[in-house]
Amino acid sequence: MRRFTFLLALFLCLLGSDAFAQFNEKPILNLENEDKALLNWGYFLGFNQYDFKFEYANDLQDILVNKTIGFNVGLIGELRLHEHLDLRFEPGLYYGTRTLGFPGFSEENDAIREVKSTYINFPLLLKVSARRIGNWKPFLVGGFSGSLNLGSNEDSLDDNNSGTFRMKKQVFNYELGFGIDFYTEYFKFSPSIRGVFAITDELVPDNDPSSPWTGNIEALRTRGVFVNFTFE
Q1: How far apart are CA 145 and CA 223, in angstroms?
Q2: Where does the record locate the signal sequence feature (predicted)?
Q3: Phi and psi of 191, rounded to 5°?
């Protein structure tokens, strides 16, 4: 989380004094009618860090997860419901890598599994905004999403005995986050931080019920952090 906060702060610094000038008491108002349209469109770029939450059958040694930073890109469609309430659809591509370390093995080839995930995410979100103050406006966002994991290996006949870690293709999540809308001279820029939490179990267990890799896992669910930079 600290790495994401640093990236967000660094990006704002790179914007220069114009971004921080939005906090002046009486700035020149930019894009005064930006939020009055029934429909708004945009796109986003960003970073992610995916993790796993495990539920174990027995109280044994935990599986370790090494997390890396991935990237996000997608589109935005927004329907204005109220002055402070918008319905958003944000289809996007999210790529990330997690490395699992399984206990009880002496050989690295058995103990380590690299899980590369490419999610096509389809979130339907409610954005609740505060009153606009000059050229900025804070907001909360939350809702549900369905994801398609293109790197799941769900249909593979091989399992961890052959070095293949399998997950389900379809995942359902809930998402919660917050951010700030900045109204610049030419567009609305919105940095945000959001957490994603899988509702459904994603694990495809090994063919052997007593597998040393998946035998003790009752459920495996993705959780992660997104930092998105939105342009509308």
Answers
A1: 13
A2: 1-21
A3: -80, 145
The predicted structure's pLDDT at residue 36: 84
Burial of 22 (0-12, 13-18, 19+ CB in 10 A): buried
The pTM of the full predicted model, rounded to 2 decimals, is 0.85
Start-to-end CA distance of the chain, whole Å, equals 26
- What is the tens place of the pLDDT at every residue in 195-226? 999 999 999 999 999 999 999 999 999 999 99
DSSP 208-225: STT-TTTTTEEEEEEEEE
Give the span between the Cα atoms of 26 and 133, in whole angstroms.
9
Assign 17 a pLDDT band (cuts: 50, 70, 90). very low
| Cα–Cα distance measured from residue 201 to residue 204, given in angstroms and rounded to the nearest whole number | 9
In the numeric block, which tokens belong to residue 14? 């790179």
- The topology (CATH level 3) of 2-231 is Porin (2.40.160)
